[in-house]
Amino acid sequence: MRPGNRNVGFSQWIAATIAIAIFAMPGYAFGQQVRPVKSGIELKLSENLINLQTEYLQYLAQPVKAQKPAFNPRNPTIVSDPDFVVIDTLPMSSTAVLRSQLQSIGAVDVVSYKSVVSARLPISAIGQLAQLSELRFARPYMAITTTH
């Protein structure tokens, strides 16, 4: 092909068509797989909170031993003790209603500041969080670590 010639050769046209088709495939963007659209529990709970619940259920399913170690999440930045996790939540509209709903599923030390409601929630109650009508979103409180 000479400079200024607008005719594209057949092989170049095929190569361009294949490249466009690859990048336009559903679930892919620039060669990276795109996550599916979130729905249900994933809309209200962060991935870290869902993973914590899964780890806890696996821990509970382990056979009982004489000295079963206390539950400890794999993610060291999640602030928790053996049975509780510290969470930050956002309400749909009312922090007072969300505080009450969190307490109804066992949350303790429930406090709010502006539009964020924080609490210590039993890890076993994470599955009930998504069912709270006033909950917009919840995530575990994450410790910030610094290195020098």
CATH architecture of the largest domain: 2-Layer Sandwich
State the major sheet.
4 strands, antiparallel
- The CATH topology of the largest domain: Alpha-Beta Plaits
Number of helices: 5
Topology as a string of helices (H) and strands (E): HEEHHEHEEHE
- pLDDT under 50 segments (min length 5)? 19-39
The figure for the number of domains is 2
Note the beta-strand portion.
15-25%
Overall mean pLDDT stands at: 77
Structural class: alpha+beta
Question: What is the highest CATH level, the class of the largest domain?
Answer: Alpha Beta
What is the structure about, briefly put?
With 148 residues, the protein is α+β, with helices and mostly antiparallel strands.
Please tell me about this protein's structure.
The protein has 148 residues and is α+β, with helices and mostly antiparallel strands. The protein folds into two domains: 1-34; 41-140, Alpha-Beta Plaits. 32% of the residues lie in helices and 21% in strands. Strand 4 and strand 5 (116-122) form a beta hairpin. The chain is globular and about 70 Å long.
